[in-house]
Write a structure and sequence with these properties.
With 70 residues, the protein is mainly alpha-helical. The chain is 67% helix and 0% strand.
Length: 70
């Protein structure tokens, strides 16, 4: 990080009664708690699966029925 950014961070930290390390730690904790793209997709997939109520893998058409031509 460049010196000017660090200096400004120290000033803002001091104004709020904290250290830069404490603010960075708080930021990283909040950042790590955020839902990842993978977690979001996993949650959405589960929500979609929960909506499926009348499905049975045994209700498949036979190969012959699938390829039957009229």
């Amino acid at each position: 990080m460049d010196d000017e950014t660090y200096r400004r961070a120290r000033v803002k930290a001091a104004e709020s009664g904290a250290s830069v390390s404490r603010l960075v730690r708080a930021f990283l904790i909040a950042f790590a708690r955020e839902e990842t793209e993978f977690d979001r997709l996993k949650r959405e997939e589960q929500a979609l699966r929960d909506q499926i109520v009348d499905f049975s893998a045994g209700d498949r058409l036979s190969r012959k029925a699938v390829h039957a031509r009229r």
